UniProtKB/TrEMBL annotation:
Domain RPW8: 1-149
GO BP term (any one): defense response
Name of the protein in question: RPW8 domain-containing protein
Superkingdom per UniProt: Eukaryota
Gene3D superfamilies referenced in this protein's UniProt entry, alphabetically: Helical domain of apoptotic protease-activating factors, P-loop containing nucleotide triphosphate hydrolases, Ribonuclease Inhibitor, Winged helix-like DNA-binding domain superfamily/Winged helix DNA-binding domain
A molecular-function term among this protein's GO annotations: ADP binding
Similarity field: Belongs to the disease resistance NB-LRR family.
Keyword annotations from UniProtKB, A to Z: Leucine-rich repeat, Plant defense, Repeat
Coiled coil: none
């Protein structure tokens, strides 16, 4: 029955009932007939709802229903006509009374036939859906042989699933990690089988899965074609599943939905909301689905389990293999702990000579990966990248591919990615964080929070880092290498020692039009470069590991370069040479350096006139910011932001920094030797953000801070030795936020400077409970103020006890 027919039927019943009630109050001649008809109509109303639900599931010929709808319309006319018959015409009263009785019988007959017919047909389907009697689509599949490393995940998942308060559990991991294997193990587990018995339905969804098609496939092997319902909508398919589930209720039911993609989220929502007792749903997906938290994140195999699984597929069971152990270990390491990779590579090498194994290793050492040589593995992982293209107006796929720029097993600060994506795709920190959340949701990256933040919406990328799964990193590099070198958008170069790629060492003179260049070298690289012509490159990422590192000469000719990132992953600080080349880059806007030594750099030779942001992380500062002979306002005439993080030897700030009046943000964090700020800091008249968190030796803020009339945010969190606020703090008339959590020295503060009452724009103060009452006392003056009290963690509570003992 179509929707329109259902609607017409419902409308006909409602209209007839209204007329019957209206006429019954105005005539006595037909009172008995009308009362009987009214009771009938009231009784069929709920039955009509049942028929409408059945029609959503079962295709039904409309002819007889259309005839009945006409009867209802005629019935309305009949009842209206009854109200006009005069009492002095008894033959008409008799005639119409008979018609009303016939109408009542027709309504009862129609609904009896409809419900009986549809229910009988549905009962047949439900009997055929009995999982205990039929074992085709939807039946529990067996567990693959030789499963390794899943005992602990199985135990954890089973415990989480069986918790009374958890109806739905999601197992999430990238493709090839064994999610389906774990779901099969759970479905075949003796404890699970004992609880759910034969009421376990296992449905494989996949990206293109359609619930109508899936339910049809479930029914086709069990029903004659004449009884097969024509399921045309998702609602009808869900209704049919619900009917089946209800038919076996209250027995416990486990519904396993394997390989679920985001387009199924609403369906899963609907299925999980069914009001059934003892009902559980297990979802496996390469997406994390935070809406169904808690999510069980399946991890890759550890080294021992990876070796065991690989040997099952790659080596004979009788121990007759002649492949050297070190070669086996290298091959296992190249599989990155992914079960599918271990199986695929293992099968491909089984029974092969040692030369075949070594040839595979040679390919990997030359920059190729398993992704390049295994179609099966590529086909498994590639859909995760392809799905990013569905967000046509988004830069999400580009952002994902850019992550191949960094070495494997390394965390990348979110602020680093923000600098890259700001210049390549015009993303701000909010957009960057959103993209990282999307990639994490899709299990393409792991997102970490290095310090618990009070407000995610305000902090965005600060205190966050990201790491890409090794095999997925290989996939992004493979994707970027599809085009010829000269036309690639991203050029990733990984070198061992001084071994350059063949195309480069042959002095390639043709321009390469990449917009992003990443070069990774190890500790044995000597620093001698071949030339490159990069007319379109906007971002250069140099990953080094050596104590001495030479900036490539070709950098000087990258006239479109906007972002330069130099990161040292070695054990000691890298000393840079050719640093002066950076002064000749006309539009360089952002520069980041990590674990490099700045003490010997002659910054007077560096004049990047368009540089807007410079960042130093875990660098050796030395005297770089103490030489008062350098006029930093001329070195950095347009600098708007400076970040100095985890630079342990920073003791004093160069006074010249206070002359860079273009600065809008100064962030000096976790610099534990910094004891004071220069009094001249008040000269930074355009400063909007001053971040000083975790500078544990900083004892005070200079009074000149009151001259920072544009300052919006002040962060002195975890500055343990600050014991007071400057008296002129009230002159910060633009101040909106103060973060002073963890300021242990303020715990004994008796009062705040009286000038704080003038902070009329102050909206939020984040602090510990010890001083929250001091701020709350000013809330009558500061109408916008909200005081957020931070709970003290156990570690800080312990430190409060230990500190006085240590001093004693």
């Amino acid at each position: 029955m179509s929707f329109l027919t259902d609607a017409a039927l419902g409308s006909g019943i409602s209209e007839l009932l209204k007329v019957v009630i209206f006429v019954a109050k105005r005539t006595l001649a037909f009172k008995s007939n009308l009362e009987t008809l009214k009771k009938t109509l009231h009784s069929v109303e709920p039955i009509f709802d049942e028929i409408r639900n059945l029609h959503r599931i079962l295709e039904r010929p409309e002819e007889e229903t259309q005839i009945f709808i006409k009867q209802l319309k005629s019935g309305v006319e009949l009842v209206e006509e009854c109200s006009t018959i005069p009492s002095w015409k008894p033959w008409k009263t008799f005639f119409h009374s008979k018609k009303l009785a016939d109408l009542d019988k027709a309504i009862v007959k129609f609904f009896n036939i409809q419900v009986q017919g549809l229910t009988a047909r549905l009962d047949l389907i439900l009997r055929c859906l009995n999982i205990g009697e039929y074992s085709s689509f939807g039946a529990v599949p067996g567990v693959p042989s030789g499963v390794v490393g899943f005992d602990h995940p199985l135990k954890e998942l089973k415990e989480m699933l069986l918790k009374d308060e958890v109806r739905i559990k999601v197992v999430s991991a990238p493709g090839g990690c064994g999610k389906t294997t774990l779901a099969k193990m759970l479905s075949n587990d003796p404890d699970i089988q004992r609880i759910f018995k034969k009421n376990i339905l296992f449905l494989t969804i996949s990206k293109s899965g359609d619930i109508c098609d899936i339910v049809k496939k479930m029914l086709q092997p069990r029903l004659p074609s004449s009884h097969l319902p024509d399921i045309q909508t998702d609602d009808a398919a869900i209704d049919l599943l619900e009917w089946w589930l209800k038919s076996i209720s209250p027995s416990p039911v486990l519904l396993v939905l394997d390989d679920v993609w985001p387009n199924w989220a609403t369906v899963v929502d609907n299925l999980s909301s069914l009001n059934l007792p003892h009902y559980k749903i297990l979802v496996t997906s390469r997406y994390s689905f935070p809406r169904f938290e808690p999510v069980y994140n399946l991890k890759i195999l550890n080294d021992q389990d990876a070796m065991t699984l690989f040997c099952q597929f790659a080596l004979p069971n009788d121990g007759s293999s002649t492949i050297p152990d070190d070669l086996v270990e290298k091959t296992v390491k190249g599989c990155k702990g992914f079960p599918l990779a271990l199986k695929v590579v293992g099968r491909s090498l089984y029974g092969q000579k040692e030369v075949k194994w070594r040839r595979e290793q040679k390919k990997w050492s030359e920059g190729k990966s398993i992704i390049d040589t295994s179609t099966e593995l590529f086909d498994c992982l590639q859909p995760s990248l392809d799905a990013l293209e569905e967000m046509k107006e988004s830069s999400l796929k580009d952002c994902c591919l850019d992550l191949g720029s960094f070495p494997e097993d390394q965390r990348v600060p979110a602020t680093t990615l923000m600098d890259i994506w700001a210049e390549l795709y015009n993303l701000d920190d909010m957009d960057t964080y959103y993209n990282l959340l999307e990639l994490a949701f899709r299990n393409l990256v792991n997102l970490f929070c290095t310090r618990q933040t009070e407000n995610e919406v305000e902090d965005f990328c600060n205190e966050r880092s990201v790491m890409q799964h090794d095999l997925l990193r290989d996939l992004t590099i493979h994707q970027s290498n599809i085009k010829p070198i000269e036309h690639t958008e991203r050029l990733f170069i990984e070198m061992t020692g001084n071994k350059f790629p063949k195309w480069w060492s042959e002095e390639m003179n043709q321009p390469i039009h990449a917009r992003l260049l990443s070069i990774s070298t190890d500790k044995n690289f000597s620093g001698s470069w071949f030339p490159l012509t990069l007319p379109a490159v906007k971002v250069v990422i140099l990953n080094c590991s050596s104590a001495m590192y030479t900036i490539p000469e070709f950098i000087e000719r990258t006239n479109q370069l906007k972002v330069l990132i130099i990161t040292n992953y070695g054990s000691s600080f890298s000393k840079l040479s050719n640093f002066h080349l950076l002064g000749n880059l006309p539009i360089l806007r952002r520069m980041r350096m990590e674990r490099v030594s700045l003490s010997f750099l002659n910054t007077s030779l560096l004049k990047p006139v368009n540089l807007q942001k410079i960042s130093f992380t875990m660098c050796e500062i030395g005297t770089a910011f103490e030489n008062t002979n350098i006029d930093l306002s001329h070195v950095f005439p347009n600098l708007e932001e400076i970040e100095i993080d985890c630079c342990d030897d920073l003791q004093n700030l160069h006074v010249g920094l206070c002359d860079i009046v273009s600065l809008k943000k100064v962030s000096i964090t976790t610099c534990n030797e910094l004891s004071a700020l220069p009094e001249e800091i008040g000269k930074l008249r355009n400063l909007e953000y001053l971040m000083l968190n975790s500078c544990t030796k900083l004892s005070e803020l200079p009074e000149s801070i009151g001259d920072l009339h544009k300052l919006k945010s002040l962060d002195i969190s975890d500055c343990l030795n600050i014991s007071d606020l400057p008296g002129r703090v009230g002159e910060l008339r633009a101040l909106e936020t103060i973060n002073m959590r963890g300021c242990q020295g303020l715990s004994d503060l008796r009062k705040l400077p009286s000038s704080v009452k003038d902070l009329k724009l102050l909206e939020k103060v984040i602090c510990d409970a010890d001083i929250s009452h001091l701020w709350k006392a000013y809330q009558s003056n500061l109408k916008k103020l909200k005081v957020e009290v931070v709970k003290e963690d156990a570690f800080k509570s312990l430190m409060r006890v230990i500190s006085p003992i240590q001093q004693f």
